[in-house]
Amino acid sequence: MIRVILPPHLRTLAHVQGDVELEVEGPVTQRSVLDALETRYPMLRGTIRDHATQQRRPFLRFFACEQDLTHESPDAPLPDAVTSGKEPFIVLGAIAGG
Question: What does pTM read for this prediction?
C-alpha cells in the first residue's frame, strides 16, 4: 500500500480524513500514484494535474523521504520507503503571498 498525504483542500474535495492508502500496480512512480489517486477519487481529476497536459498544477509540490520530487520525471521510481509504505508520498499546497 502506498500512503498519500493530501493538502486540506484536496482532502475536503475527496471527502477523506487523514492519509489515503492506494494499491498501485506496476512501477511506483509519481505518475502511477497520481493515476491511482485520480481513479479512486475522480473528483480530484484536474486538481493536481492539468487534464490535457498532465503537468503538475502550479502551487502544488511533491515530497517523499524529505526530498522535493516536484521537478523529477513523473516516471522516475519513487524511493523504496514509499513503495513499502514506510514513508508517505506528500502532495503539498505551496503558499504564495506578498
Answer: 0.91
Q: Which three cell numbers stand for residue 37?
A: 489517486
pLDDT digits (tens, 9 = 90+) for 18-65: 999 999 989 999 999 999 999 999 999 999 999 899 999 988 999 999
Domain boundaries, the chain: 2-93
Task: Please state the CATH superfamily assignment of the domain spanning residues 2-93 in this structure.
Answer: Beta-grasp domain (3.10.20.30)
Q: DSSP E strands: which ranges in 20-95?
A: 20-22, 60-64, 67-68, 89-93
Asked whether the beta carbons of 28 and 57 are under 8 A apart, the reply is no
Sheet holding 2-5, edge to edge: 20-22, 2-5, 89-93, 60-64, 67-68
